[in-house]
Each structure stands twice: as C-alpha cells, then as structure tokens.
Design goal:
Helix content is 69%, strand content 7%. The chain is mainly alpha-helical. Strand 2 and strand 3 form a beta hairpin. Helix 1 packs across helix 3, helix 1 packs across helix 4 and helix 2 packs across helix 3. 24% of the residues are buried.
Length: 124
C-alpha cells in the first residue's frame, strides 16, 4: 500500500484536523492545505480505494485503522524533524517546510536511529 507523498500529506492533514475538529470534511482539508475542491476530491477518492479513509453520508472523513496508523507515523516524523531542525538553529518556518519534505522519503531504519539519537541527546 503506497500512497506517495501527496497521499501522505492528505492523511497527515486529516489526522491533524481530526484532533482539532469533531468532524472533518473535504472542505476543511482543502482550506488547511490550500488545495482546490477537485484536487481534494481526487485525493480522497484514492485514499478510499486504498482503504485508508472512509466518507459517510454527510461527507465526514474518518481515517480507517490503517489510515490512522500511517498518518500517526507521518505526523510523528514531521514533529521530530521539525524539533530537530529548530534545535540545530533552523528558523521555525524553514524547519516546518523541510521536515515536511524529509518525512516522506527517509527509511524507517534511519528515522528510528535519528529518533533514538534525538531522544537521548536532543533538547526538548
């Protein structure tokens, strides 16, 4: 099951919004990401095909168990890389942007090693 960087960004956005809102709709995702309704609809359709998200009759989006798991991993990576980059002196805006790029391409092995290092030596 590979959804690519774009799909992962949508999963992460739904995950973040679901922590803030009682119900998440495609319009919320589009507003958060700055994407058009057709782009969001297409992406949600692909995520549905991969069984990572469901859409109920009212249009509310819910991550499936697999979607939630994948989104949580992506979000954790984003948070860790942002924190790491800020700790080494990168400004917050650049750290956020760069973390968003790195989180999609790094191997699990490398991420786990970086995470262990940050937990042992990094600033909180």
């Amino acid at each position: 099951m590979t959804v690519g960087e774009s799909g992962e960004m949508y999963l992460e956005t739904i995950y973040i919004l679901s922590k803030k809102l009682s119900n998440v709709r495609s319009i919320d995702v589009g507003a958060y990401m700055g994407f058009s309704k057709p782009s969001v609809s297409r992406a949600i359709g692909l995520l549905k095909k991969e069984n990572l998200v469901t859409v109920d009759r009212q249009g509310f989006l819910t991550l499936t168990e697999a979607g939630e798991k994948k989104a949580a991993v992506i979000y954790e990576r984003h948070q860790l890389f942002t924190r790491l980059l800020i700790n080494i002196g990168v400004d917050e805006k650049t750290a956020e942007e760069d973390a968003c790029r790195v989180e999609h391409y790094i191997s699990d092995e490398t991420f786990d090693a970086i995470k262990a290092h940050v937990e042992k030596y990094g600033k909180k």
